[in-house]
Amino acid sequence: MARRREEIDRLEELEELFADLWQVPRFAAGWRHEHRPALDVFRTTDPAELTIVVEIAGADPSSIQLLLDGRRLLIAGERPRARVRGQFDRSEIEYGRFRRELALNEDVDVESARANYERGLLRIVLPITQRARTPRSVMIEIRRSR
User: CA triplet 20, 22, 26: central angle to 5 degrees?
Assistant: First the structure.
């Protein structure tokens, strides 16, 4: 089982690598349609949960869509470019539409999924279930912390 998990992790890393290779370089942001915000995924055992933390400072939580469909999680939204007076000397922050799709390695309880947006980080918590659930799609509502 551990070997299979390692193989799945390697395949996911390759998938990310190929996706990144086909991206237009950062300096050509006007040509690119979407960007991929950075994220962390970790698993806890007590309670058994998957937690996904997505770095999307500046995005309005109401513009972010979270769709959980069986063992796939779609994170999509938009981070608008701030209006500036003058011209840029440097532009490294990625703006515009973003999209991440994650394959989950565990069956999760879609009814108990929750999300919170605070200080530019979106935290999605997916409780792990021991019984396979009938795959169905559910939108996860994002709470905004003060």
Answer: 65
Q: What are the start-end ranges of the E strands in the chain?
A: 34-35, 39-45, 48-55, 65-69, 72-79, 96-103, 114-118, 121-127, 137-139, 142-144
Q: Give the tens place of pLDDT for each residue, 40-65.
A: 999 999 999 999 999 999 999 999 99
Amino acid at 39: L
Instruction: Report d(CA 65, CA 61) in Å as an integer.
Output: 8
Per-residue pLDDT of 125-143, as tens digits, reads 999 988 766 566 788 888 8
Task: Dig out the tokens for 76 from the structure.
Answer: 């999509």
Peptide bond into 37 cis (omega under 30): no
Looking at 2.60.40.790, 3.40.920.10, 3.20.20.70, 2.70.70.10, the CATH number of the domain 33-81+95-144 comes to: 2.60.40.790
